[in-house]
Amino acid sequence: MKTLFLDFDGALHCMAQTGAKPFERLPLLEPLVVGTTGEASIGRYARHREIVEYTRCYRLTDWRALDNSFLEFPENAHGLIWCNPRTGVSAREVDALREWLLD
After folding, report:
1. E strands within the chain?
2. Is 68 helix (H, G, I), strand (E, B) or coil?
3. Residue 1 burial (CB count, 10 A)
4. What is the DSSP letter of 23?
């Protein structure tokens, strides 16, 4: 089963634009995304650790993370699709997700 871990601040809405609407980019991904990972981790590479723990718990091997914070992941982290926090998710990231989903 393919699983997408989706950040929201900086991915589903722009962090740099004054007056940006929360979750304004959600319609691009809405048909694809359901569920949550649960409690957030704290510390170095917190988001990556949270995802890895979730994948171990549910025995998931085919996953991607759409996130705007490369600091939350170790360098060259498996599965990370980085999006620019100034714009949020764009056609480039959607295309990468679509390619992965259709593979």
Report:
1. 2-6, 62-67, 80-82
2. coil
3. 8
4. T
